[in-house]
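Session log. Operator J.P. requested a structure for one protein chain; no other inputs attached. Running the standard single-chain path with token output.
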Amino acid sequence: MTVVQIGLWLHLYNAFTSDIGLDYYVLMFFAVTFYPVGLYAAHIGDTWGGVLSHIMVHFIANIGNYILYTHKAVQKFEDDVVPP
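Structure written below.
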């Protein structure tokens, strides 16, 4: 759990320094909303609902990380290679 928290804080910081940070935060908020849904599903005995909700947390977060870091890489490439 500690590794997950450290990774999340690193991604949140990188989003803060990016011009698409707000988009990333909205997407992460959407991903995190699946966590309590999964807990509730598991609590009422819906194991598959809990599993699918947990999968959605990771799936949406991975999409967000892909967008964030792809954008940062393109931005760095443009800053380094493309003349102003």
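Operator note: The mean pLDDT is 89.
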